[in-house]
Specification:
The chain has 1 helix and 14 strands; from the N terminus they run αββββββββββββββ. By secondary structure, the protein is mainly beta. It has a single domain, classed as Beta Barrel (YmcC-like fold), CATH 2.40.360. Strands 6-7-9-10-11-12-13-14-1-2-3-4-5-8 form a 14-stranded antiparallel beta sheet, with helices on one face. The longest helix has 17 residues.
Length: 254
């Protein structure tokens, strides 16, 4: 029973990480105006508009966690970063991002200084220990490549059992060119980016050490001034394969 619950929880974690530590400079950043005015400086990005109140709603089919919908909202914007809030049904995730000269960097798989996921009788708290690379570079030109790395550790409680986990998530990106993409939210000219991701956990529970892995190759399509509008690809969670498609249903850019 406990391993079935762990697999269910990890499926949620992998979902959160695909839809995708360091601190900021140590100063107290000034929040951007609540009017949603575009952010200038290092947070400006053509393919991911960092605007307070910007909202994107998506729907996925084929995920190992089952079909699901979620909504992303930029809830706080600062001079050197922002907070992304995501709602998956009754599950809510917040994720901190940093803005650097080379682009936008996800600082967590999901959560404030620790990523905390709660679903019924399951709880998972994740502390990110190391962040390297960039998630959304300033430019996405055909042939361009970049990487992103997270190293983390955490604790989980499932049906009264306590377990610990540590691992890393590595993603390599390759921009492949521009295509026309049609999704429920509309038709967009978008840059296609291939992502190759590997996530590895080692879980300690009931005196047993068990490795859990995820690998996947997805294509993402990014439209200027909008963000990512579609993702599709294949993955494998510890021997279980799946094919997933995620499409933008609607969006609002202030």
């Amino acid at each position: 029973m406990i391993w079935r619950n762990i697999k269910k929880l990890l499926s949620l974690i992998f979902v959160l990480s695909f839809v995708t530590a360091c601190s900021s400079s140590g100063t107290n950043p000034t929040e951007a105006p609540e009017t949603g005015e575009p952010v200038s400086g290092i947070c400006a990005n053509d393919y991911y508009p960092v605007l307070q109140g910007a909202t994107w709603s998506y729907k996925s089919t084929g995920s190992p966690a089952g079909d699901y919908s979620f909504t992303d909202t930029i809830s706080v914007v600062k001079e050197d970063g922002f907070t992304l809030s995501s709602k998956f049904g009754e599950l809510t995730r917040t994720q901190e991002w940093s803005c650097k000269e080379e682009g936008l960097v996800a600082l967590q798989l999901g959560g404030p200084s620790a990523a905390t996921l709660n679903s019924q009788d399951m709880n998972f708290t994740l502390d990110v220990k190391k962040v390297e690379g960039v998630t959304y570079p300033r430019e996405m030109k055909p042939g361009g490549t970049w990487q992103h790395l997270l190293e983390f550790e955490g604790e989980m409680e499932i049906a009264g059992e306590t377990a610990t986990a540590e691992g890393n998530a590595q993603t390599a990106f390759t921009a492949q060119g521009t295509e026309s993409v049609t999704v429920p939210a509309g038709t967009f000219e978008a840059v296609k980016v291939q992502t190759d991701t590997n996530i590895v956990f080692t879980i300690q529970v009931q005196g047993i050490s068990v490795p859990v892995s995820f690998s996947g190759t997805y294509s993402y399509w990014y439209a200027k001034g909008v963000g990512w509008v579609k993702a599709e690809g294949q993955g494998n969670i510890t021997g279980t394969s799946f094919t997933e498609t995620i499409e933008l249903q609607s969006y609002e850019i202030p």
